[in-house]
Amino acid sequence: MRSLFWRCIREFLWRAAHARAAARVLAEAEAAAAAGTPCPPGRLAELRAYPWWEVRNAAVKLTALDRTGPADEFLCGLLRDRTDVGIVRRNAAAALGARPASPSAAGALRRGAADPYWEVRREAVWAVARIDPRSEATFDTLCAAVPRERTNQVRMALARALGATGNPGAMQPLELLSAGASWLVRLQSAVALAELAAAVPAHRERVRAVLARMERSSAGLTGRMVLADRMAVLDALLGGGEWPPADAIESLYFAPGIPWTRQ
Question: What is this structure's pTM?
Answer without folding.
Answer: 0.90
